[in-house]
């Protein structure tokens, strides 16, 4: 494995990507940012789980699980034979149980030839293998035969419930259909898979929010417990939404049985549709994973939402507290330098991990203030 270090100046955050008229400038940090390649030679790493000892558990989209530890990357022996990586499917989101230190339990979201499902695992003490639970924690999320809009990101909220983003499977009626799990964010008990306590009580009680297209990022805001969803949109728009129990986020591409992607991401003709807190407009950036910059080391940039972009091939910083998300800036050193970016995950010590998604020689980057 090759290791490399690049350093950029946080004060140089002048790469303006998008702005709305009248929005104030975002503050720029003055500290140096370090970009370090901690793993390479991967294929489409979708997520990162940070183990208590600092090792990383990394799912590769075509159905492999890697452990990155002490500068080495080794495949974890795990039963992933049912993973179907067609199109946008495969092995996707991964999250550690909040009690991982005691249980070694973690969760993956993956597509099979039948559906998209969440699987619970136990990692061996030496990290060389993982045993999956006999039954999926969540199943029955429909998938398109092409694999389009398979989701799927996982996140624990501050109550200990597990959030699961489920893409709409490119079926126009799914996002507004409360009898379908697709085009939704689900909220479940991580031990049983049952609807979590406090859910809004919709037709399918696992559903927490609906009216989504293909949520690719979920981020918990430190100090508030608020959860923000990053929506990968059609050519006209990407969005960031603040999730609210029972909320409808307005995606309704049902054009008399067709899948009409010319409609707005948030249809204001839907009664009660919740507007996005940030919209990219066109051209879009194919927004994906996200995490908040947490810790005083980030200087004035603390609290900004860092969003990975696939088509945009950059890391955006967004002030979710500002009107319409404020200005959007991109981080020097992560503007096309590493290609498509997929995941952003807090490291636990004030830094963030960012993964690339180019299909060959992909990397896990440690980005630090």
TrEMBL record:
InterPro entries: 6-blade_b-propeller_TolB-like (IPR011042), Glc/Sorbosone_DH (IPR012938), Quinoprot_gluc/sorb_DH_b-prop (IPR011041)
Keyword Signal among record annotations: yes
Entry keyword annotation includes Oxidoreductase: no
Stretches of the chain forming a coiled coil according to its record: none
Keyword entries, A-Z: Signal
Ranges of residues in domain Glucose/Sorbosone dehydrogenase: 42-359
UniProt cross-references to SUPFAM superfamilies, sorted A to Z: Soluble quinoprotein glucose dehydrogenase
Superkingdom of the source species: Bacteria
Signal peptide: 1-21
A family per Pfam: GSDH
Protein name: PQQ-dependent sugar dehydrogenase
